[in-house]
Amino acid sequence: MAFQPPYSPSLFRKRDTASGASVVAIDNKIEQAMDLVKNHLMYAVREEVEILKEQIRELVEKNSQLERENTLLKTLASPEQLEKFQSRLSPEEPVPKSPRAPEAPDGSAV
Prior knowledge:
Helix content is 71%, strand content 0%. With 110 residues, it is an all-alpha fold.
């Protein structure tokens, strides 16, 4: 009687093949899941980009409006008003948070 191994070599090869197919199937599922995540992230990023572009458009429009108003106010202001305004913006003197009544030279309110 010839020696017979406790297992069939063909059965072992089938297990290797089944195991290999299982690994390939798992790899495919992982790749599909990663593609799905990537697609969701790309969609979310595109959506956020569109929102930010709209906010930028609104801010540019608001900035243009404020620049036009500023130019108009500068043209309508008298030279004295412009000088007073510029002196309040000088870096040596911070702009007060609340308006104060002017003081007389002796320290009393006018």
